[in-house]
Design goal:
single chain; 17 helices; 20% helix; 26% strand; protease; Peptidases_S8_3
């Protein structure tokens, strides 16, 4: 899974061939997460940690606990050989011993783009309830000196807060304030896998040396900063989605990886600290709901904590998303109405527009010699042929800003970076160290033919700055991971999309904006522009915090429901939102319920609510055995003899996996949060091969919090079956509210 920001990709490539410590017998050790049935602790032990230690000592006298988990799961992390892990699994009270996983890390304009400007400011409180909400961000840490984390105008820290500010390398407890009220770091698991952290290279503390965590935290909840910009680009007033809420950071990602034992420890502490929202722009492919992020999120949900996660950056491949658990809000990425155009000018008189973020010394006011450098990998360019020229490079899986570094080191004056055949037309703005314009595949193919066939090719680059009110927008980002959901096809994922392309947010002071290291990029900026579902996730985290401040009684499921059922999937002219990858209308497998619309979500009319018991019943219906359910839920639970189908989970969307002709019946229950009234259903379907009927067609509500159920029957007409995906929606309206649920029909 790639992280789209060129900056962060440079620092967070997960190493697959890991070196490991070795036990004295020569067997290879690895980190394991051990799940314990806490309720089975023998009475001879005064505390569960003593029992855990005794269980571990029964298989290894030398093994040490890395972490003990009390909230996210019941259990501990330790280093064991495979044989010791197998032996531990046989001990009383041990439910599971799972090897640790490695995870990857997956703004001035967006508040206005989302309608959070002055005319709608009254929808959300500026003080009081809003400032009592805490967002916990699990990432690479924080740059506390950023103006985005100023506590000017903030009152006392909420009395319910239990967190702390943990000192470490280049970080003292005094760096926290009434805005940044908590900061912790978790490196024990990482150091067991990768060796001791080189503190001359990265800070063993909550300090963010790489920028990603500062960027995501400020996107979610950064304070208002006037005059924010990146080297003159995207100038304006920067603000997080929920700029009055508090922030607590949990540094769980380091230079080479984010390991699951550290992530789980961070989630464990965030729950204990009493955060209200948990934001994780981290992910990895999973085949079940027993991954550490999924299990930690379940525990958070159980305590009323809303968990938002990035869908991943493996689009446009289908079934590529991560963080698909139904108790997680899974966020895809979209573009906004702002671009940074750069124009490629060729010697044959043709011009091609791409994107550019360079604001250094301009190129000479003339056409320059133009050469082809292929992929511009390190060691491949001849300075004698490149010096003083524009170089064309082709995008591949390597770091984009590194190609510019290679060209500059060889004496090149500028670079044209073109998409290859598999990259399509999506181009992202990067903080290059020399003038660069990135272009899509079509323009790239034409430019390449010119530079390879013209006897005297010349070119130049014109950088045009910032352009707003770009249309159409939003569009689904090509890199945004997509459904169908491979774990449970009858649960539609992603849930929705939010801004994730070319997002301006706060940045670390320890690293240049290109992420190429201190010697290659000596620039320092307060704000940087990045792209990825890592950027879209904190948008939703911040919006969830706003909804929580207005509706403190709402559950995480209620907040997600409000965001989903009020999302939009058409432009103002009624035409469907487009997918950058295809240039065609996007579908619920790309955009979920649609693009988030926070001002509408404040008053959704109806919500689809869920309890912990509902999710456990869903696991039972999904044929999870009691051991797996105990691992996820951390308690004893017996599945009912008769379970509802997994598809009957009270989710605000419908995914129908058709396996043949016949009928498929789904049941949903809505809760009235909008006052007395009657809601009438409207069914939209793009195929006649599946008939959709809803019973009853009208829901009458007399009071707030009243619940009503309805059923949806999907009848497959076998003679008309298209054997391809089809889509639609089910909408309830009382004339004031439209409560919309997407429908996705796939064929097996």
């Amino acid at each position: 899974m790639s992280f789209l920001s060129s900056t962060a990709l440079f620092f967070f490539i997960v190493l697959l061939n890991l070196s490991s410590f070795h036990a004295s017998d020569g067997a290879q050790q690895a980190t394991y997460i051990v799940h314990m049935a806490k309720c089975q602790m023998p009475s001879s032990f005064d505390h569960h940690s003593l029992w855990y230690d005794s269980s571990l000592r029964s298989v290894s006298e030398s093994a040490e606990m890395i972490y003990t988990y009390n909230n996210a799961i019941h259990g501990f992390a330790t280093r064991l050989t495979p044989g010791e892990a197998d032996s531990l699994m046989t001990q009383p009270g041990v439910i599971s011993v799972q090897q640790e996983q490695k995870y990857e890390l997956h703004t001035t304009r967006t508040p206005l783009f989302l309608g959070l400007d002055g005319q709608n400011a009254g929808l959300f409180p500026e003080t009081g309830a809003s400032s009592d909400i805490v967002i916990g961000v699990l990432d690479t840490g924080i740059w506390p000196e950023s103006k985005s984390f100023s506590d000017e105008g903030y009152g006392p820290i909420p009395s319910t807060w239990k967190g702390e500010c943990q000192a470490g390398t280049n970080f003292t407890a005094s760096l926290c304030n009434r805005k940044l009220i908590g900061a912790r770091f978790f490196s024990d698991g990482y150091e067991r896998d990768y060796g001791k952290i080189n503190q001359a290279d990265e800070s063993k503390s909550p300090r963010d040396d790489f920028g990603h965590g500062t960027h995501t935290a400020s996107t979610a909840a950064g304070n208002v900063v006037k005059g924010a910009n990146y080297l003159g680009f995207a100038s304006g007033t920067a603000s997080g989605m929920a700029h009055r809420v508090r922030v607590s950071v949990y540094k769980v990602c380091w230079k080479s990886a984010c390991v699951s034992s550290d992530i789980l420890a961070g989630m464990d502490k965030a729950i204990e600290d009493n955060v209200h929202i948990m934001s994780l722009s981290i992910g990895g492919k999973s085949t079940s709901y027993t991954g550490e992020i999924s299990m930690g999120a379940f525990s958070a949900m159980e305590r009323g904590i809303f968990v938002s996660c990035s869908a991943g950056n493996d689009g446009p491949s289908p079934s590529s998303l991560s963080n698909a658990a139904p108790w997680i809000t899974t966020v895809g990425a979209s573009s906004i109405d702002r671009e940074f155009p750069g124009v490629v000018i060729l010697g044959n008189g043709k011009n091609y527009t791409g994107v550019s973020l360079f604001n250094g010394n301009a190129l000479p006011a003339k056409l320059l010699p133009f050469v082809y450098g292929n992929y511009c990998s390190r060691g491949t360019l001849n300075p004698e042929k490149v010096k003083g020229k524009i170089v064309m490079c082709i995008k591949d899986d390597s770091v984009r800003t590194e190609k510019g570094e290679v060209v500059k080191a060889a004496g090149g004056l500028g670079m044209i970076l073109a998409n290859a055949a598999g990259s399509g037309e999506e181009v992202l703005a990067d903080a290059h160290v020399l003038p660069v314009t990135a272009v899509g595949q079509k323009a790239g193919d034409i430019i390449r033919r010119y530079v390879l066939t013209d006897p005297n090719p010349t070119a130049s680059i014109l950088i045009r700055g910032t352009v707003v009110n770009v249309r159409p927008s939003p569009m689904v980002a090509a890199f945004s991971s997509r459904g169908p959901n491979t774990i449970t096809p009858n649960i539609l994922k992603p849930d929705l999309i939010a801004p994730g392309v070319n997002i301006l947010a706060a940045w670390t002071g320890a690293l240049g904006p290109s992420g190429l290291g201190t010697t290659s990029d000596t620039r320092r900026v307060e704000f940087n522009i990045n792209s990825g579902t890592s950027m879209s996730c904190p948008h939703v985290s911040g919006l969830a915090a706003l909804l929580k401040s207005v509706h403190p009684e709402w559950s995480p499921a209620a907040i997600r429901s409000a965001l989903m059922t009020t999302a939009y999937n058409t432009y103002k002219d009624g035409k469907p939102i487009l997918d950058v990858a295809t240039g065609k209308p996007s579908t619920p497998f790309e955009h979920g319920a649609g693009h988030v619309s926070p001002t509408a979500a404040v008053n959704p009319g109806l919500i689809y609510d869920l309890t912990t018991e509902d999710y456990i019943d869903f696991l039972c219906a999904s044929n999870y055995n009691l051991s797996l359910i105990t691992i996820i839920s951390r308690g004893n639970y017996t599945c009912p003899r008769k379970t509802h189908p997994a598809a009957d989970l009270n989710y605000p969307s419908f995914a129908v996996n058709v396996k043949g002709s016949g009928t498929y019946k789904y049941t949903r229950t809505v809760t009235n949060v909008g006052g007395a009234g009657s809601y009438t259903v409207k069914v939209i379907s793009e195929t006649a091969a599946v008939k959709i009927s809803v019973e009853p067609a009208v829901l009458n509500f007399k009071k707030v919090n009243e619940k009503k159920s309805y059923s949806v029957t999907f009848t497959v007409v076998s003679s008309m079956a298209p054997r391809s995906n089809s889509f639609g929606s089910i909408e309830w309206s009382d004339g004031k509210h439209v409560v919309a649920s997407p429908v996705a029909i796939s064929w097996t």
